[in-house]
Amino acid sequence: MKYLIPLLFIAAFFSCNENAYVKSKDPVDAAREFIRASLDGDFKKAKLYLARDDNNQNFYKLYIDKYDKLSSIEKDGFKKSSIIVNKVENINDSTIIVNYANSFKNKNFELKVYTEKGECWVDFYYGITGNLNIE
Fold first, then answer.
1. Is residue 32 one of the residues assigned to a domain?
2. I need a labelling partner for 52 at 20 to 30 A (CA). Which of 34, 86, 127, 128 fits?
3. Residue 38 neighbours by CB under 8 Å, 6+ apart
4. Which pLDDT tens digits describe the chain residue by residue (135 residues)?
5. What CATH number corresponds to the domain at position 93?
6. Is residue 4 part of a domain?
């Protein structure tokens, strides 16, 4: 009996980790995962890909604040929308630029995805610094 309780805790711990999300190591798929999570309002998942610098963190917080103020109809429109990838540009062996839109707003955006130490990171802030009109 004294071994049963610790075994149950260990089993519970490992069963919780079985469903842990694993980030994509493919830059195009990472971009798609980030975009889909952002459209769905799944910001916890999107932040797994978001570059860790202050510019990206602060700008994405503004995006979240704006998303939270949308009506339920608009949020539903984003959730039901499809991702339209217009162009993927390979900058170098570790960086791509993804030009995309969603079928709800059909407005083009760009983001940069780079691979560092085997992990894909989304530079969401690139949409501003890449001379992109995002109004």
1. yes
2. 86
3. 46, 63, 67
4. 555 454 445 555 555 544 578 999 999 999 999 999 999 999 999 999 999 999 999 999 999 999 999 999 999 999 999 999 999 999 999 999 999 999 999 999 999 999 999 999 999 999 877 544 333
5. 3.10.450
6. no
